[in-house]
Amino acid sequence: MVHTNWAGNITFGAREVHRPGAVDEVRALVAGAGRVRALGSGHSFNRIADTDGELISLAGLPPRVEIDAAASRVTVAGGLRYGDFADRLYAAGFALPNLGSLPHISVAGAVATATHGSGVRNTSLASSVSGLELVTAEGELVEIRRGHPDFAGMVVGLGGFGVVTALTLDLVPGFEIAQYVYDRLPAEEFAGHAQEILGAGYSVSVFTTWRTDQLDQVWVKGPRTQDVPGPRWFGATRADGPRHPVPGMDTRHCTTQLGEPGPWQHRLPHFRMDFTPSTGRELQSEFFVPRANVVAAYRALDTIRDRMSPLVQTCEIRTIAAEGLWLSPAAERDSAAFHFTWIDDTPAVTALLPVIEELLSPFAVRPHWGKLFTCDAATLRTRYDHYADFERLLAHYDPGGKFGNDFLDRHFTRA
Ligand SMILES: Cc1cc2nc3c(=O)[nH]c(=O)nc-3n(C[C@H](O)[C@H](O)[C@H](O)COP(=O)(O)OP(=O)(O)OC[C@H]3O[C@@H](n4cnc5c(N)ncnc54)[C@H](O)[C@@H]3O)c2cc1C
After folding, report:
1. 156 lines ligand 1 (CB under 6 A)
2. N or C: which terminus of the chain carries fewer CB neighbours within 10 A?
3. Minimal CA–CA distance to 49: which of 398, 61, 57?
4. Is the peptide bond before 223 cis (omega within 30 degrees of 0)?
5. For the chain, domain boundaries
6. Which atom of ligand 1 is nearest to 6's Cα?
C-alpha cells in the first residue's frame, strides 16, 4: 500500500506503517526494528516524517486523557489530535494557551516541529509540554520532565529521539474568545504600525496574497470584545460576513467570526474540527525572523511580489514569543513568521524558496521544520545557539541512527 502525507506531495519510503494498540507493542516494534520513525497525522510537507525502514502510527493507542486539575495539567496519548480532547479540557474548566490553524494535527507531531499559533505573548505549542514519555532506541520507555538537563533539547525533537507515546501539557484556566476579521489593510499602514497591529489582540494573523497594495485580511482574536479595534482600523474595514483566509474559498470550514464569543478551542484555530479544511492541494513554507524586523522582512519579500503572487494561495504573518526550546524557530527571540500556502506546484515553489531564503537571510531567518525549505545544515547551524548541543543529544540517545532518516542525516551530524 502506498502511504503519503496529508498534502500528497510526499510518498513515504517506509516498508510498512504499523498501528500498535498498546505502548508495549510500540516498545517491541522499536526494539526489533532497523530504521524506524513515528508518524503523526502526516501534516508535514517535507520528508521529516519519512524513513526507509518502518513507520509507527500511534493513532491506535488507547486515547489517554488524564486531567490533573490540582496541578493544572493533562497527560495525553501521543497519537491524539488537539481536537480530540480540547472540548474535554474546556468542560473541565481548562485551556491550552494556544492552538495552530487547525485542530486536526497530532500533539506529538506538532510538538516535534514547534508548531505554533499567533500572539505576541504566545510561545509555540511545544512550550506547554512539561513531560514526555518516549520509547527510545532499545525499546525502553523513559520519561523526561521539565528540569531534566536534556529537556529543552528533546521537546522539539524532530522525531529523532524516539517514539513519544504520551505528553504532559500545562493548562491555563478555560476562556472564551471572539474573533473579528478586517478587510484590506493598506500596506503602508501595516509598515507604519506593524507592532501595534500584530499586538492588537490575544492572537493576530495578517493575510496577504501579495497581489495588491493591500493586505487582504487581518484576523484579531479577542479575548475581550471591548478591547477589539473599532470598525475602521488603520484603513482596514471590519468584515460584514465570515471570511476564509484564502479568498474565495468556502467559509463554512472556518471557525466562527463576527465577534461571537466562544470557547478557546473553537476560535483560536482558523479551521473547524468537524470539516476537513481543504482538499490538501497545497504546499506550505514558513520563515521566522525577529519580530522587530517584520517590516524590513515584509519589504524585502515585497520586491519579489510578482514572482510570489502566482504561486501563493495566501501568506499569513503571525507572531511567536521567544522560548527556550533549542530547535524552536522562535528559540531565544520574539519572532514574526511569514507562512506561505502555495499552490501544489512543487518545481515552481522549490525554485522560489532559495530566493526567499536569501532575501530573508539578513534577518537570520529560520524555516519551519515541518514545511518546505531549502537552506542547508551549514546555514542552519549559524542560526541556532544550540545546534551542536542538539547533535550531541542525538548521538547520546540514538548513536546508531535508528530514528534517523534522510532529512535528519542531511541537517544534523551525530557528533
Ligand atoms: C493544513 C495545515 C495547517 C497547518 N497549520 C500550522 C500552523 O498553524 N502552525 C504551524 O506551526 N504549523 C502548521 N502546520 C504544520 C504542522 O503543524 C507540522 O508539520 C506538524 O509537525 C504536523 O504534525 P503531524 O502530527 O502531522 O506530524 P507528522 O507530519 O506526521 O510528523 C512530523 C514530525 O513529528 C514526528 N512525530 C510525529 N509523531 C511523533 C511521536 N509520537 N513521537 C516522536 N515523533 C513524532 C515525526 O517523526 C516527524 O519528524 C500545518 C500543516 C497543515 C497541513
Report:
1. no
2. N
3. 57
4. yes
5. 16-57, 65-174, 176-376
6. 53
Question: Has residue 136 got a pLDDT over 90?
Answer: yes
For 345-395, the pLDDT digits (tens) are 999 999 999 999 999 999 999 999 999 999 999 999 999 999 999 999 999
- pLDDT for 280 equals 73
Count the Cβ atoms, other than its own, within 10 Å of residue 274.
Answer: 9
Which residue has a Cα nearest atom 44 of ligand 1? 159
Percent helix, strand, coil in the chain, to 5, is 25, 25, 45
Q: What is the band of 277 on the pLDDT scale with cuts at 50, 70, 90? A: low
On the question of pLDDT at 279 being above 70, the answer is no
- For a pocket test of ligand 1, which of 41, 43, 84, 278 has the largest count of ligand atoms closer than 8 A to its C-beta? 43
- The whole-angstrom separation of Cα 8 and Cα 280 is 7
16-57 to CATH, choices 3.40.1350.10, 3.90.1150.10, 3.10.129.10, 3.30.43.10: 3.30.43.10
Residues of the chain with pLDDT > 70: what percent?
Answer: 97
Pick the CATH number of 65-174 from 3.30.1330.90, 2.60.40.420, 3.30.465.10, 3.40.50.720: 3.30.465.10
Domain 176-376 top-level CATH class: alpha beta
The pLDDT of residue 171 is: 98
> Using alpha carbons only, how large is the chain's radius of gyration in Å?
20
> How far is 280 from 284, CA to CA, in rounded Å?
11
Q: How far apart are CA 231 and CA 399, in angstroms?
A: 58
Q: What is the average per-residue pLDDT within 9-14?
A: 94
